[in-house]
Every structure is written in structure tokens, then in C-alpha cells.
Amino acid sequence: MKTIIEPFRIKTVEPITMTTPEERERYLREASFNTFLIKARHVLIDLLTDSGTGAMSAEQWAGIMRADESYAGAESFFRFESKLQEITGFAHILPTHQGRASERILFELVGGEGKVVPNNTHFDTTLANIEHSGARAVNLPVAEGKNPRSQYPFKGNMDVEGLERLIAEVGAKNIPVVMVTVTNNSGGGQPVSLENLRAVRRVCDRHGLPLFLDACRFAENAYFIKLREEGQQDRSVRDIVRDMFDLADGATISAKKDGIVNMGGVLLMRDETLFQRATNLLILTEGYITYGGLSGRDLEAMAQGFEEVLHEDYLQYRIRSTAYLGERLVRMGVQIIEPPGGHAIYVDAGAFCPHIPAEQFPGQSVVCGLYREGGIRACEIGSVMFGKHAKPAMELVRLAIPRRVYTQSHIDYVLEVFESLFAKRNTLRGMRIVEEPPALRHFTAKFAEI
Ligand code: F0G
Predict the structure, then answer these.
(1) What is the domain range of residue 260?
(2) Across 270-384, where does the E strand assignment appear?
(3) 439: confidence class by pLDDT, cuts 50, 70, 90
(4) Residues 275 and 165 placed together within one structural domain of the fold
């Protein structure tokens, strides 16, 4: 059959609220044109993030009922640990409350003044945790990753020559760890190839450096490898995932993405000494090693979620349904970062409203336009988010797709809203910031229309 369907049926439903244009105008103004400040119940289709917003399965909810809430040695921990050992091959598995907790522990151990940590592109919490430790974070994406129209299949790859140059410049002894983010979220949700991971590994071996993955979306990355990398088509996603982890010495994971849970994270490593030190920090701030700041039920949901995310009918639907949104936007004339990524579509807001200069936040105008037009919530990734430090390369709006939550007709509705907004894009107005906090201003800044 040609149609790729949602490989599940719906057992529990949650109503979403249709609002009138007048109500949306009022909510938008009450939120000072910042959609982070709008109540979720006033949003019809919420594409703010794919993080922690997935729908859990009947088996995950059953695990939640069965969970063992013992403080130490809970059965739920052992199920979680053995599932992650089976998938990744890592000996040491620590639960944390979310991805940034794993990052905080890792960089408290290996970061510090004078240290430099390269990545294809650091996610903002990774960057913030590295800088918080006193170290410097460096992004090394490949050139293709910076060109939104390039159809290169692995635009998430790391610039391996750039990595060599960085090592020569700052010295291997100042690089505690090399990181690669799969998929590259800040670079458009684009995948990293096995070939690139192997090349990075070879450089790390030559200089005696450990390689860590930021593996939040490891299953989506592996599915792209299966679809696009030569010689991988007949292999199972499970085997490809194992190849990815086999190349690394450790990983940080936010389970809120490919763990398909609402809360949870993992810190994985091979090194015994580093693990002992991480354990001490975990106990200090997260919780005892067999729960790490989570409940037994969260560990059960993760153990099952990490299994389900590897089912290939799920991944086929996941990657295909994101591409469906991207392909139709392109057909409509909306420019996006191509080819479509795994968890989100990134719309080029600069091209959507060329009459609005970067200083007037075209991404924020599109975000407000989508809410006004159809109650859709998206996220600006451009001068509002990053412009305080340096002018970002692009003004983007991210449409992140929660896992197993919306059906094709919801996405068709999003496309209709886009069509209508696109037709009147000349009427979108620039914005100015009237109030902002000292850091991470996109969450709470207040805007006015120009
Ligand atoms: N690394 C990547 C690549 C991420 O995308 C995220 C979160 C994190 C680390 C941090 O994980 O939120 O569990 O602490 N990304 C979310 C997003 C917030 O919307 O892209 P966390």
C-alpha cells in the first residue's frame, strides 16, 4: 500500500480547544506577543517542542502501574538499566531527571576553565552547561549544514577537518571530550552519517580523546542512516543504533524525545572511574543511583519507550509524517530548511517576510501570525533566541512534531493555516522588545508590534 498510516489506534483522547479569532487576539495581546506566555489550553495545535510532549502507549501506562517505588534496588531500575544496556552496549547507565541534568553532571566532571568542547552544533542547554563550568563550547557543522537549500543527505555531520584544526589550535589536552549531537537539533534536525561518526572516532583515537553522543534523537538518526547511507538499507535500525553507540565512549540522553516519555534522562558511559565520580554527583543533587531524581514509574515508562521507538513501522511513520508537512510547505512556496528533518520543520522566516528586517524579528511575526490565524503554537529560533549575542545565520520558525500525538488531518489543518497566512504575509508587522530578562530572553520577553 502507498499510504503510510499512523501505526496505532487511539485509546484515550484529550480535547483540544478551538478559539475564535477575537479570543486569540486577546490572548496574544495578554501574552505580550510571546507565545511561551499563552496558556496551553488556548492553543489548538501545539508545535512548540517535541520534548516531553509525546503520547505514551498502553504498555507504558501498564508499566507505570506495575512500577516498583523502592528507594534502593527497585525492580523498575533493573528493567530500565538492562533495556539501555541491550540497546546501547554501555556498561554504566545512570537515570537523571532530564537531558540537561546529564549534561550538568558530565561537564561538572570534565569541564572547567581553559577547556574546549567541540560539537557538530551544541544544543542551548549543552552550551550553557559547558560555559557554566568555565569551558568554551565550539560548533563545527559541515558547510552543507549551513546552506538551507542543500539537499545533502547528512547535513548534521561534523566538520572533521575543522575538528583537526581545533585540536591543533587549542591542544588535545584541553579538549576533555568531543561531542556529536544526533540528530543535530540546532542545525535543523538533520542526521549524522555512520561514516562521519567513524571519521570523528578516528580523529579522537589519534589524539586520545573520548567521544560522547548527545543522543536525544538517536532512533530518528539511525532511521535516516537506514534510508540514506550506502549499504545500510537492509540492516535493522537496532543494529545501526548499536553501531552508533559502539563508536562512542559515552552519551547524554533526554528521554523526553526518543524515550517517548514526559520526563526523564540518561547518562551513559564506559569508563569505570568517570562513572564512580558521576555516581557521587548524581547522589548529591539528583537522587540515589537506582532512581536518579525520577520515580520508579518514570523508569518503567522509559524502559518501554526506548523499546517502542526502535520499531521500524513507528519510525517510518514518524520520519514520513514530518516530511509530509515539509514537502507540502515547499510546494506552497514556503522556504524551509531542506530536506525535512526528523522531529521538526524549520521555516525560513526571513524569506517568508522579506519586508521585516532581522532587528524586527521576522520569526516572531510568523509565530504570532500562526497563532492568530489558526491557534498554532510554534517557536522562534532566530534573533529573539540568539540575537543578544550575535546575529544568527538565519531567522527560523520551528514546527516541532510531538510523537504519536497529531494525525494527518491535524497536519493538513496546519498546512491550511500556512496557506492563508502565506497569502497575506505582506501584512505581517515587525516587532520590538519592550521588556526582557538578562538571559534566555525568548521565554519571557514582552513584545510590541511596529
Ligand atoms: N540536547 C538536545 C539535542 C536537545 O534537543 C535537548 C532539548 C537537550 C539536549 C536538553 O534536554 O530538555 O531534557 O533537558 N531540547 C528541547 C527542544 C527542549 O525543544 O528542542 P532536556
Answers:
(1) 66-308
(2) 344-348, 376-377, 379-381
(3) confident
(4) yes
Please give the Cα distance from 105 to 107 (Å, whole number). Answer: 6
Task: Determine contact, residues 2/308, Cβ cutoff 8 Å.
Answer: no
Whose alpha carbon is nearest atom 18 of ligand 1? 51
Residue 303's nearest CA partner among 53, 99, 10, 85 is 85
Are 168 and 34 members of one domain? no
Mean pLDDT of 351-359: 96
For 32, residues 6+ apart whose C-beta sits below 8 A from its C-beta are: 434, 435, 446, 447, 448
Query: 296 with 399, same domain?
Result: no
Q: Which atom of ligand 1 is nearest to the CA of 400?
A: 19
Atom 8 of ligand 1, residue of closest alpha carbon? 99
The CB of 214 under 6 Å from ligand 1? The reply is: yes
- Clarify whether residues 41 and 80 are in a common domain: no
Residue bearing cell 508587522: 429
Q: What is the pLDDT of residue 124?
A: 87
pLDDT in tens, 118-172: 999 999 889 989 999 999 999 999 999 988 899 999 999 999 999 999 999 999 9
Ligand 1, atom 4, residue with closest C-alpha: 123
Q: Is 98 in the pocket of ligand 1 (CB under 6 A)?
A: yes
Same domain assignment for residues 257 and 382 = no
Last-in-domain residue among 257, 277, 308: 308
Q: Rounded to the nearest whole angstrom, what is the distance from the C-alpha of residue 332 to the centroid of ligand 1? A: 30
